[in-house]
Amino acid sequence: MQPTNMEPVPTAVMWDESLLRYRFSDTHPMAPVRLELTHALAGHLGVLDAPTVTVLTPPMATDEQLSAVHDADYIQRVREASQLDADGEGLGAERLEEIGLGTDDCPVFSDLHSSSARIAGGSLAAAEALWSGDYQHVVNFAGGMHHAHREKASGFCIYNDAALAIQRMLDLGAERVAYVDLDAHHGDGVESIFWDDPRVLTVSLHETGVALFPGTGFANDIGGTGAEGSAVNVALPAGSNDAAYLRAVHAVVPQLLRAFSPDVLVTQHGCDGHGRDPLADLQLSVDGQRQLMLDARDWAYDYAGDRWLALGGGGYSPFDVVPRAWTHLIAIAAGHPVARAEPLPDAWLALASQRSGMDLDELPETMHDAVDVWWRSWEVGFDPADPTDQSVMATRKAVFPLHGLDPWFD
User: Fold this and answer.
1) Of 148, 151, 129, 147, nearest to 138 (Cα)?
2) What pTM value is reported for the model?
3) Is 208 in contact with 248 (CB distance < 8 Å)?
4) Tens digits of per-residue pLDDT, 348-376?
5) What is d(CA 169, CA 158) in angstroms, rounded to the nearest whole number?
6) pLDDT digits (tens, 9 = 90+) for 15-55
7) What average pLDDT score do residues 180-190 get?
8) How far apart are CA 144 and CA 127, in angstroms?
9) SS3 per residue for the chain
């Protein structure tokens, strides 16, 4: 399904090779090659050369800017931890553990603070460019660090660029901001930072926390006192495929966005829900993820004045999934979608083979997985015995009445 508004619009893409310095180790799943290959693929396919696309260099966020959503003591400790690799001194193990660092998920490295602040600065600059009206859509595919909390690193995430972008737009005058998280993992950090703020609607559709990190994000998690209904969670069964995930999305997201009427839409497009991703158990295809991007563009147009900030996120299949998915994201945001069956350029395949050590015949050939994306509309009725429908109904019952919606019919 194509959106009804696929016109080219002024679109900014945040990119600089300095973003590749966010690199925990040689073996860490958050491999910067996924960013390198995304940028290269978008370039080889001409997406970045479209007349309405501008590539902007992300600045490094200052400590003052980071403190909009992070504790000053936490920022200082991250700075100190960044010295551990350089001179063998810094925070002790206990002090590291208190802020979520020095773990398998978030080991320290010498560029820890600066590289994290660069990603955060990219989303801050994206928010400012969007709110100023210079661009209608902005993409920061290096962003989407949704697990970072106000005072603690978590899940490969140090500074929460998504929350920083949201807070910046609120500070600039936005009255309501909607955040939709399409990662396989619960967007717990963004949710926790705005838990008590009714101006921010956070919606997360993810593999159930019973089976997957971070173990949170259930239907009865609805926001703090005075902000009930501002947090929305759909915890999907492990193994959910395109049809199940898209059914859940379309049974919850557009209804809430219509009721909330945000000034701007922020979406997180972690592609770790793909069936080949090693860190989650969902079974989405690139085709299904592409459909979610088309849907997000429609939501921005229909409900948020066509202001859309799109972020990356998780994604740990860096050679055959992430570059294809996020190249689709950039192209769709710009209004120049890449055909699903578009062949992957030979030059890009050669680069991917070189970076991965894989033979060419081990890499995908086209921009899609040749999956027929279809889902059963919620309007045709729900099946109380179906696990997906059970999750959806639990969420609708918990939050729809708080937005003036009927959980049975809207």
Assistant:
1) 129
2) 0.97
3) no
4) 999 999 999 999 999 999 999 999 999 99
5) 21
6) 999 999 999 999 999 999 999 999 999 999 999 999 999 99
7) 98
8) 13
9) CCCCCCCCCCEEEECCHHHHHCCCCCCCCCCCHHHHHHHHHHHHCCHHHCCCEEEECCCCCCHHHHCCCCCHHHHHHHHHHCCHHHHCCCCCHHHHHHCCCCCCCCCCCCCHHHHHHHHHHHHHHHHHHHHHCCCCEEEECCCCCCCCECCECECCECCCHHHHHHHHHHHHCCCCEEEEECCCCCCHHHHHHCCCCCCEEEEEEEECCCCCCCCCCCCCCCCCCCCCCCEEEEEECCCCEHHHHHHHHHHHHHHHHHHHCCCEEEEECCCCCECCCCCCCCEECHHHHHHHHHHHHHHHHHHCCCCEEEECCCCCCCCCCHHHHHHHHHHHHHCCCCCCCCECCHHHHHHHHHHHCCCHHHCCCECCCCCCCCCCCHHHCCCCCCHHHHHHHHHHHHHHHHHCCCCCCC
pLDDT at 85: 52
State the pLDDT at residue 395: 98
* Predicted confidence (pLDDT) per residue in 199-254, tens digit: 999 999 999 999 999 999 999 999 999 999 999 999 999 999 999 999 999 999 99
Structure tokens at 175: 């009255």
Is 147 among the residues known to form the active site? yes
Q: Which of these is catalytic: 39, 147, 186, 328?
A: 147
CB-CB neighbours of 97 under 10 Å:
13
Amino acid letter for position 103? T
pLDDT, mean of residues 335-343: 97
Domain boundaries, the chain: 11-59+114-403
- CATH of region 11-59+114-403: 3.40.800.20
Q: Does residue 87 have a pLDDT over 50?
A: no
* Predicted pLDDT of residue 5: 78
What tokens does 254 get? 């557009």
Q: Torsion-angle region of residue 306: left (phi > 0), alpha (psi -120 to 50) or beta?
A: left
Tokens 């030979």 correspond to 346
Say which range, 71-85, 201-215, 270-284, 374-388, has the weakest mean pLDDT.
71-85
Q: Is pLDDT of 86 > 50?
A: no
For residue 86, give every residue at least 6 positions away whose Cβ sits within 8 Å of its Cβ, in sequence order, or none: 110
Phi/psi of residue 76, nearest 5 degrees: -65, -40
The residue type of 214 is: P
pLDDT of residue 78: 96
